[in-house]
Amino acid sequence: MPTPFFLGTASWTFPDWQRVFYPDGLAERDRLAWYATQCNSVEVNTSFYALPAPSTLVQWVESVPPGFTFGLKAPRLITHERRLVDCKQESLAFLDVLRSLGSAAAPGFLQFPASFTRAREGRILANYLDWLAGELDGLLLAVEVRSADLLTPAFARFLGERGMALVVVERTGTDDFYAAWEESAAPYLFLRLIGNDGEPLPNDRELQRPQEEILDRWAARIVGLLEKGVPVYCYTHNTLEGHSPASLRRLRQRIHARYPLPDWSPLMVVMENEDAASTGQLALF
Known about the structure:
Blueprint: E1 5-10, H1 31-38, E2 41-44, H2 54-62, E3 69-72, H3 76-81, H4 88-101, E4 108-111, H5 118-133, E5 141-144, H6 153-161, E6 165-166, E7 168-171, H7 178-183, E8 189-195, H8 212-228, E9 232-236, H9 238-241, H10 244-258, H11 274-277
Parallel strand pairs: 1-2, 1-9, 2-3, 4-5, 5-6, 7-8, 8-9
Helix pairs in contact: 8-10
């Protein structure tokens, strides 16, 4: 069997995508179902603000074909507001959401602000992750840090030893820490291709600043991992080149040329209960 490879964008609902990614006239409630005919995963950011209701999770899963996955970001209450203090109940609730997705769950991920440092909060972080590792019970979890004193091979190894993975981020102005992830023996790669998010582009509709070198570099790395049997979860952002579906296609073409990928062309999943779909719960981004 081929090594699992999940490729998607950060969110599925952008107004600028209408008529350039989504077909003209496609209803907003049908965007996820259409998106899932083009990509086999999506990064979910709404969970950063509030965990989705059970009914929303059901609608998501019923709108996508088998094999599709959702990568949910942990609530900001855990990582940014309480900064891991007195948040075990909220953390367990997040894990419950991941479990409820079943086979549609990509790794969940904790994203910490740059102000969250090893010097100030390292002990709290280590104790929390030690506890959290014991609660995963087979769930996949990745950790994104931005502080320089946490972007180290030692922290990546700490995560790998607990079955977690350091999130690898391609962002302008951020050091390349793929080598630190590689040394950690993490069970999978969770990659976010963000690019230059410090310089907004005029729209999200088209390729505006091609990143050939970045795509070439990551295509080569991903091929190497897939050949070794290491699963990859990769998400492109509009800020990388201007239109993340185009970046996704360009990256996939590069990978497929060197490592033939299975075709992903499922039929659009039409929900039987259109009243439920029309509530807007599918379009939370």
